[in-house]
UniProtKB/TrEMBL annotation:
<feature type="transmembrane region" description="Helical">
    <location>
        <begin position="100"/>
        <end position="118"/>
    </location>
</feature>
<dbReference type="Pfam" id="PF01925">
    <property type="entry name" value="TauE"/>
</dbReference>
<dbReference type="InterPro" id="IPR052017">
    <property type="entry name" value="TSUP"/>
</dbReference>
<feature type="transmembrane region" description="Helical">
    <location>
        <begin position="231"/>
        <end position="249"/>
    </location>
</feature>
<keyword id="KW-1003">Cell membrane</keyword>
<keyword id="KW-0812">Transmembrane</keyword>
<feature type="transmembrane region" description="Helical">
    <location>
        <begin position="138"/>
        <end position="165"/>
    </location>
</feature>
<keyword id="KW-0472">Membrane</keyword>
<protein>
    <recommendedName>
        <fullName>Probable membrane transporter protein</fullName>
    </recommendedName>
</protein>
<dbReference type="InterPro" id="IPR002781">
    <property type="entry name" value="TM_pro_TauE-like"/>
</dbReference>
<feature type="transmembrane region" description="Helical">
    <location>
        <begin position="75"/>
        <end position="93"/>
    </location>
</feature>
<keyword id="KW-0813">Transport</keyword>
<feature type="transmembrane region" description="Helical">
    <location>
        <begin position="51"/>
        <end position="69"/>
    </location>
</feature>
<comment type="similarity">
    <text>Belongs to the 4-toluene sulfonate uptake permease (TSUP) (TC 2.A.102) family.</text>
</comment>
<dbReference type="GO" id="GO:0005886">
    <property type="term" value="C:plasma membrane"/>
</dbReference>
<keyword id="KW-1133">Transmembrane helix</keyword>
C-alpha cells in the first residue's frame, strides 16, 4: 500500500473511533474506506480487519467511561450474550442479503431519529427503574439480537445498544453509552474471533488502524463525559441522518 492510502485509512480509523465512542456507527466510515482504498481485499478481510481495529478503540472508550460512570460494569452480565451473538452473526454473515437488510435498517433509523427528535427528554432525564427478572430476560434477548446483527451486518450497533438500554433502564444517555461500549467490546471480540480463525484479518494493517482508532475513541469518550447527555443526543441525530443517507445511497444508487 502507498503512503497516501495508509494515511487516509489511519485518518478514517481515527474518525471512526471518535464516532464509535460517542454513539456508534464508526464502521460506516472505516469499513467502506478499507474496501475503497484496498480493493484487493475480500469483504471478509475488510470486515475482519475493521473488527480488529474496533476492538481496541471500543475497549479504550469503555475503560474511560467505566471509570467515571457509576454502575457501568453492570453491563458485564450481558457481555457473554453479546459475544456469542456476534460470533453467530459472523458465521452467517456470508449468507445475509444486504439488499434485504438495508431497507429494514433504514426504516429503523428513521424511526429512531424521529423518536429522539420528538422526545427531547429521552435520555436526558434519568429515572432508573428497578430491573425485574422479566426486564433482565427481555434485555438479554435484545442484547443477543443486537450481537447477532453486529456480527452479520454491523452498522449502528452502538446506537442500537444506547437506544435499547435507555428505554429498558429508563436511564440517561451517559449511562447507556458506558454500557453500550462494554457490550460493543464483546460483540467486536466475538466477531473478531470468527474472522481471525478463518484467516480474514490483516493483522499488521489492523494494528496501525487500531492505534488511531484508540486515539479517536479516547477523544470521543472524554467529550461524552465533558459535554453530557445533550451532546450525545445531538450526535445521535447526526449519525442517524448520515447512516440513513449512506444506506439509502448504497441500496438504490450504488
Amino acid at each position: 500500500m502507498s503512503t497516501t492510502v495508509i494515511t487516509v485509512l489511519l485518518a478514517g480509523s481515527l474518525a471512526a473511533g471518535w464516532i464509535d465512542a460517542v454513539v456508534g456507527g464508526g464502521g460506516l466510515i472505516l469499513l467502506p474506506l478499507i474496501m475503497i482504498m484496498a480493493p484487493g481485499l475480500t469483504n471478509a478481510q475488510a470486515l475482519g480487519t475493521n473488527k480488529f481495529a474496533a476492538v481496541f478503540g471500543t475497549t479504550s472508550a469503555a475503560i474511560t467511561l467505566a471509570r467515571r460512570i457509576p454502575n457501568a460494569l453492570g453491563a458485564l452480565r450481558w457481555a457473554p450474550l453479546a459475544l456469542v451473538g456476534a460470533a453467530i452473526g459472523a458465521f452467517i454473515a456470508a449468507s445475509v442479503d444486504q439488499h434485504i437488510m438495508r431497507p429494514i435498517i433504514i426504516v429503523v433509523l428513521v424511526a429512531v431519529g424521529f423518536f429522539v427528535l420528538l422526545r427531547p427528554s429521552f435520555g436526558r432525564d434519568s429515572e432508573p427503574r428497578i430491573m425485574t427478572k422479566r426486564s433482565w430476560t427481555a434485555g438479554a434477548a435484545i442484547i443477543l439480537a443486537i450481537g447477532i446483527y453486529d456480527g452479520a451486518f454491523g452498522p449502528g450497533t452502538g446506537l442500537f445498544f444506547i437506544m435499547s438500554l435507555t428505554a429498558l433502564m429508563r436511564g440517561d444517555f451517559m449511562t447507556s453509552a458506558a454500557w453500550a461500549k462494554i457490550l460493543n467490546v464483546a460483540t467486536n471480540l466475538g466477531a473478531l474471533i470468527v474472522f481471525g480463525l478463518r484467516g480474514d484479518v490483516l493483522w499488521l494493517l489492523g494494528l496501525g488502524l487500531a492505534i488511531t482508532n484508540i486515539i479517536g475513541a479516547r477523544i470521543g469518550a472524554r467529550m461524552v463525559l465533558g459535554r453530557g447527555a445533550g451532546f450525545v443526543r445531538i450526535v445521535i441525530l447526526c449519525v442517524v441522518v448520515i447512516m440513513a443517507g449512506k444506506l439509502t445511497y448504497d441500496q438504490f444508487f450504488a
